[in-house]
Structures are given as C-alpha cells and as structure tokens.
Amino acid sequence: MLSNLRCVAAAASRQTWQRAFVMQQAPVAHIRTLATGSAPRDSTVLTPVWFKPPSIHGRETLWSHLHDLAHDALKKTEKTPEEVWRIREKTEVPNLPRPNDAYSGRSVPVINKDVSMALTKLRGILTVNAVRQTSVRDERHEKKGEKRNRLRSLRWRRRFAHEVRKKVQLVNEIRARGA
Q: How far is CA 29 from CA 5, 48, 60, 63, 166, in A?
C-alpha cells in the first residue's frame, strides 16, 4: 500500500511540474490532488503562498537553491587530512571517555569536590550490581545443586514480581477508566 502511494505521489508531482513547464505562466492555476475519500478526483485547490513555479527562461530552476548551496560548499577550501586530524585532536580527543578497565564500572568521578555525591552514586552502582551480596556469597564454596536451586529461586522471584507489577498496572488502568 505504501509503495503504491509513493508511486502515485511521484506521478502526481511529475504531472504537476510538467504542467507548470508547459504552461510557461508565472502562477500555476491549480494543482491536481490525489483522489481521497474527502476530495473528488479532479478537484482543484488554490496555489499555496510558498509555491513558486520554476522559471524556464531565467536562471532559476526547480532545484537552483540546492545547486547554489552545493556550489558554495564546494568553494570552501578543503583541508588536508593532517589538518583535520590536528583540529580533531585539539577539540574532540580531550572529551573522549577513558578506555574501560577492570574498575571502570565501579568508578565515579568527583565533580566540583563533591565527594558525598560521588559516594552516593557509587553506593547506588554497587547496590544495583549486587557487589556486596556476591562477595559474601563467594566467601564459601557453594555446591552445584545449591547454586542451581538458588538461581531457580531467583528466576522465579523475578518472574513473579514482574507478573505482580503487570497486574497492579492493569488494575490501575481499569481504575483510571472509572470502572
């Protein structure tokens, strides 16, 4: 359906411009519209204020403004690759993030000597990643069967919590509708 619409729109646009070139008049009297449920097939509309028909005899054509932009862009002096790299090294390289290492996920920058905010962010990261629970659990050996049962229990709890969340959300939506 969308490809058919594109073909029809392209054909209608082509016919409109062909008609404008053939008529060689300043304003186009009408633009043919696509057949829709609300507009008859051969209905006409007034020319929009922004519509400027292409000039055949003058320099101005349909895409002249784009041609002028491209021409201006080509006029600019091109820089050598060494100059481009030198400029990027001064402007972009200092703003690049540091490469990742073993501690990058558990590191927080201290901004404006605000250590308490940095520690709060670090505590949040450690909580989300369950670092303390993992370190306590790893103090002793865990048997294969116990680990399997623990992971099964965690999976079940996560799924159950998700289903409860969905049901609560559904109930809230029904209440919001006024039922």
A: 25, 11, 20, 21, 58
DSSP one-letter string for the chain: -HHHHHHHHHHHHHHHHHHHHHH--SS-S-EEPPP-SSS-TT-EEPPPTT--PPPSSSS--TTHHHHHHHHHHHHSPPPPHHHHHHHHHHHTGGGSPPPP-TTGGG-----TT-HHHHHHHHHHHHHHTTHHHHHHHTTS---HHHHHHHHHHHHHHHHHHHHHHHHHHHHHHHHHHT-
- Is the pTM of the predicted complex or chain greater than 0.85? no
The pLDDT of residue 109 is: 87
Question: How many Cβ atoms from other residues are within 10 Å of residue 17's Cβ?
Answer: 14
Q: What is the mean pLDDT of each successive set of 10 residues along the chain, which is 179 residues long?
A: 51 53 44 47 55 56 69 73 89 85 84 94 92 92 96 97 97 91
Q: Interior CA angle at 120 toward 117 and 123, to 5°?
A: 150
Q: How many residues are given for the chain?
A: 179
